[in-house]
Design a protein that fits this description.
By secondary structure, the chain is mainly alpha-helical. Helix content is about 50%, strand content about 5%. It has one domain. The radius of gyration is 34 Å and the shape is rod-shaped.
Length: about 150
């Protein structure tokens, strides 16, 4: 037989293990917040630059679509509606044909229109361009000009 003192000791140890086990269960709010902060930092350092690069490329695509829209969709419609004129006075005259309210590129600069005697080689009817992200004529790489009469 087991003595009552030994039995009491065994029961006390069992209860102590149960209490210790209950304290070890789960994770604290602080631990969760630390893990989320680490995940946020990793995402910011790895994903952030890629997202910003894609955003910059999308602005270039928007500008390319807009200059081609003015040159190849809006100008022919305008020319049909204005048979006596060779060139519109400004791009604002073409805005109604491209469902636009202003003639600004995605970087906030005005699109540049060339028509008539100023028409560059390779352009027909009208030439529209954006100076790109830097807002200056010329440039190379991502800062190059976006022209309606040139392919990508």
């Amino acid at each position: 037989m087991i003595s009552s003192t030994l039995l009491d000791t065994l029961v006390a140890r069992k209860n102590a293990r149960k209490k210790a086990g209950k304290k070890q269960r789960g994770i604290t709010l602080l631990e969760i917040l630390i893990v989320l902060a680490i995940i946020g930092l990793v995402m910011g350092l790895l994903v952030g630059p890629a997202v910003m690069k894609a955003f910059g490329k999308s602005k270039t695509r928007i500008a390319r679509i807009a200059v081609k829209g003015y040159a190849f969709e809006a100008y022919p419609k305008w020319a049909t509606d204005n048979p006596g004129k060779k060139c519109p006075s400004s791009l604002a005259d073409l805005n109604e044909y491209v469902n636009s309210t202003d003639a600004k590129d995605p970087w906030g600069n005005d699109y540049v229109m060339q028509c008539g005697e100023n028409l560059p080689a390779g352009a027909k009817g009208i030439a529209v361009m954006s100076y790109g992200e830097d807002g200056k004529a010329g440039g190379d790489g991502d800062a190059r000009d976006i022209k309606s009469w040139q392919e990508e």
